[in-house]
Please model this.
Amino acid sequence: RSSYSCCYFVLPCCFFDFHGKYSRRQSKKTQYREYLDFVAQVGFVCGFHVEEDCLRIPSTKRVSFIGKSRTYAAAEHALIDQQITQFINSRTCAVATCDRRVGFNHKDHCDGLCKEAGSEPPEDETETAGTIWMPGFQPREKVEQIRNCASLPRDFVDQVVLSVANLLLNAAPQKSCSDKQGGNMNTWNQGESLSLREVAEHLNKETLKKLKSEYGGLQTLLKNNHQVFEVLNGRVHIRDWRKEKPPSKTKPEVKRRISAEAFKTRLCWFFIHHPDGCSLPSEACPYAHGTEELR
Model:
């Protein structure tokens, strides 16, 4: 509805209508197929030649719709827009009357929408979203802010990682973790495990404030640093790479080649920062023990 030249791609997933959960109308179809038909219907009502495709993705919800061309000429845009208005209003009224979770008066809302259903569409396309669509509609920002800790400054992330690692190493008396496979009884300090809450209590307020603005906060940052930490059931552990399962030899050749190409492309955090160094010998560690090993 934004413009005549608009095209769209949609991958339907959760069963929602314009104003709440989608209500089933046919018991002969599966809920998923019925919802797909509804989404396709929206495209047809909006004047699109709707094409259906099945994506090659590992998901049970993989049927998509594409609208690349219109079923009407540009001169008929105002007439089709009126048709769209009536369709949206009819769907919104039907759902709003049974959706009691919404904060405004459903009867007044529906009466107002139904009275407007036959009116001419607004001439000014730049009118507010509330008048073009429906009260309370808030479109997503054009540029969505990345808030998964990936955009945090590298120096800040490194500082938090080092602080948390030192906290775990010094939280309890040094533990011995022997490499029994090779008969080597050298000790390597794996430190203690602490809950996310305990870790957060030891971080300063400025650090916590910065992390709270990110989705997942501290937990996401620690999980992103998979090389150093392991987060299980809300507890943070320092990862011991000797306990990691070796890569399967039955992997397809392509996957084996990708794994080999990714080998030693980053420096080993433990080799640089851990007081006992890395728990693995250089030839077995997937990370570089020194810049001379970087690939």
